[in-house]
Amino acid sequence: MSRPGSPGSQPGPERTLPAPATGGVPADVGTAFAVPASPEQALAELHAGNRRFVTGAPRHPNQDAGHRAAVADGQHPFAVIVGCSDSRLAAEIIFDRGLGDLFVVRTAGHTIGPEVLGSVEYAVTVLGTPLVVVLGHDSCGAVQAARTADATGTPPVGHLCAVVDAVVPSLRRAAAEGVDDIDGIVDIHIAHTVEAMLGRSAVLAAEVAAGRCGVVGMSYRLTAGEVRTVAEVPARTADAPEAAASAALA
């Protein structure tokens, strides 16, 4: 994969890094584990990690001192997470990952502006990250705030207005589709964010078109801890992510 300072480099073959140490003992130098290098592999790894989290059997990979030292001179995250800032939506925890695995960008309601898009483009083109995930969740406060402001005609104070303005187009789409429940609106907002990201970033769209990157919208259930796919570009068969995740768990 490309390293910082080499924009536009294409991802190479599947990478390996030293295996994480266990029990405080440094990892053996000759031991390595595979780092996902394709959108399909990255998505399968996220599904597998989330399943471990949901079932109460996390492995907490790549969180030891040995791995910390191994990634100190460079990062090769396998997924970008553009997530909501909600404190209950910590990506490394819900996907059971560690240092250097995820490139995380968080804003209230996973709203996207130039800085967010630039961060995504950096991860995809400079770091060679093969997957971008828009991560929302049920009962999203940003969506609820936008809904209230839109219904009452009273905009929020300060910069929160920018968050509300970014969510309003999703409210309009939901109304046009007859969707009224908050979680249905959240799903529409996640899908809208995926579309907006690709529409506003020619760089990201080109990487997707070339097959070097995929973009997925996911919704997280706060109580159950599960993620589910809401949108996917390029689209795959409905059972592909689950089948890949099962293979990764095997």
From TrEMBL:
Keywords: Lyase, Zinc. SMART domains: Pro_CA. InterPro entries: Carbonic_anhydrase (IPR001765), Carbonic_anhydrase_CS (IPR015892), Carbonic_anhydrase_sf (IPR036874). It catalyses: hydrogencarbonate + H(+) = CO2 + H2O. SUPFAM superfamilies: beta-carbonic anhydrase, cab. Residues 1-13 have a biased composition (Low complexity). It holds the Pfam family Pro_CA. Its EC number is 4.2.1.1. Coiled coil: none annotated. Residues 1-30 are annotated as: Disordered. Belongs to the beta-class carbonic anhydrase family. Reversible hydration of carbon dioxide. This is Carbonic anhydrase. It comes from Micromonospora reichwaldensis.
